[in-house]
Amino acid sequence: MVKLPKQTLLAVLKIALVSTSLPLIVTIFSPLHPGTKQINSLVFAQENVEPSPQPTASLEPKKTSQPTEQKTQEKSENSDDEKGWKGWLILISGLMGLYLGILWFRPLWLLLLPAELKIPKTPITPEVKLPVGILRFLKYRPRVLDAWVEKHLETFQQKFLENETVEERKDYVSLPVELNSQEIDELTAETLSEPFKTDKRVRLLIRGEGGSGKTTIACQIAKWAMTKQHQSKALAKHLMLPVLIEKEIDNTGDGIKPIMEAIMAEIQELIDKEQMIVDELLVKQLLRQRRILLIVDGYSELSQETQKKINPDPKEFPANALIVTSRIEENFRGIDIKIKTLRFDGGKLAYFIEQYLKECGKWHLFEADQEEFLQECAQLARIVGEQKTITVLLAKLYAEKMINSKENNFTSERSLDNIPDLILNHLEKLNRQGERETKSEYPTIKEDAQLIAWKCLEQNYKPFYAERKEVVEAFSSLGRDDAISCLEYFEKHLRLLKFIGYGERKDRNKIRFALDPLAEYLAALYLVQENKDDEEKWREFLVKAQEKSSKKEIKGFLLAVRDCCLAKGSEVRVPNFVADEIGKLAGLDLEALEKELERQRIKRLVRNLFAPGATVSDRLDDLQKIGDSGSVAKFVALDIVKCLKDDDKEVRRSAAQALGNLGNASEPVVQPLLIQLQDEYSSLRSSAVEALGKLGNASDAVVQAILDLLQDRDSQVCLFAKEALINLRNAIDAGSKLSILLSEYFQEENDEINRN
Known about the structure:
This protein is 59% helix and 6% strand.
């Protein structure tokens, strides 16, 4: 193929572009209506001057000759006009064909045209500056923009997927979400395709708490946007290139200038660092015609200054395809789609983790032992409770823990029973990988992570950026001079930090955590260790939290602080009032939470009962605590029944006593207790009959068994049997055989007492 010189190519394009505009130009600059002929100025003057008096004879010839000359002149002019218009029509048709040919076969050539275009003066038209509207219409046709997108698609995809934020969320598992106030089981490209396949503006808001999967959904939609139409997961009828804005915008200026500069900087990074993008008008057209999908991640966590620069409400806002993720419900104008992420319960947990493991290519580690896999999932459900309280992040962190344990054969790894420990476990796992990469130990990983996280949340109590200088000074105040190397380790090897800003990394002076919930829990752990048992410091924190509690964005941090107080507070003697006060600020139902916490405590005690290393003393202590909990622990009665088969008689006796306090009088509980009435140890028979009396199950079998026990050889057992019958007497139907039998028995007892 012959390569045309640039000047020749531009000339051809200009001609083609002019050709499409000529009909408009000719119409604009034509002084008369189409049906009006143009009159020669000399003839016009002759026709309007009155003739001087002449003899009749001399006038006659002129009257006959003038019409003849005029007709001849008109005929000549009409012939010239006809030839001119035919020529113009041929020229315009040819040039329009040339333009359409370029548009069809080489649409990107049209982008080489200058931003302004002047049509030179011709014998029949003056110099004309082509209107900008016409130029845009001809230059930025959808076919041209589609060709530009197609050209850069492969590079765009590669670099977008290499983005840390996107790469960390590459394993997507669809979960129930609330779509425009209606809960759906699965979010797919087909679900969202209807608004995206129209030609109108599309704005999508994804909201939810930290760690609930907002960014993961946004990244997945971006992948669908880059899927071609003939494929099943295509989002729109044309390709869209995603641009992710997740940093503070430092650019200054009025109107849309800051956001345009930020978008162009991101496009520059995604396309080619050496190829400068100077055509801002092209970028605007890509945005307005929805060839670029703008994603603003973590809008509620950005500074107010940046939020103002990204505000989509003004009419001049350039992006007509926009996705915003936020922790709160933003009130932007014209939001077409609202997606709310949801927590999920233990029933969906096993499904999610299984699908996540398959996406990671790790399912083979668990496929052989399904029972072990389900037990692991149940452990996480116990950590976070039985209600819909599991977030995507927690499930992913726990899945990563499961993978790590399997791959490294950590069979003796400690059991996790709270979220702060799960966060720290994830941090330790990342650090082990980092230590292998650097071939050096990092023993202060927890302390350093907590300090950096606190500096990122200290000002606003929400995940934000910290000045690099302030973090370095915080390390220096502890006598550390390795802050720079620590920050680099957290960024390069742990991938927990991001340096904020544009340009080279060394020039970026702000840092923030990659995962907001991780930052919140680490900062909360720092706060617990810093304040400890100092009531004055906690009061001061509560006052500051009260001032900021009107902002919904800090709720995640408050809940993290409360969790850390409950899980780690006893180690440093955090005052008891702190967790309750923080719960109130976060808007929690403390009574319901207290019940749930008690249930969690009881579950932990039950797990300890059957732990491999539990001693007799440990089991006796746990059974005592469970029994003291009363009816709150009723739901674990069947677990306690298992202890009635323990090898140690004291454990069996303690289990019987505990069952008497729980109030579960069902047959699966009562029948094992009846068996204990035949035990050779009198202390166990006493505890079992006492428990039956407390439970109040007055079935024939129970009453008869207790009556038989009145003849026991041990007087203490007989005494407990009598008390049990007294307790059951009111539960027996009056007039029944058992009621008559008991009445006769107690009558004999009374007579015996009176005789004595």
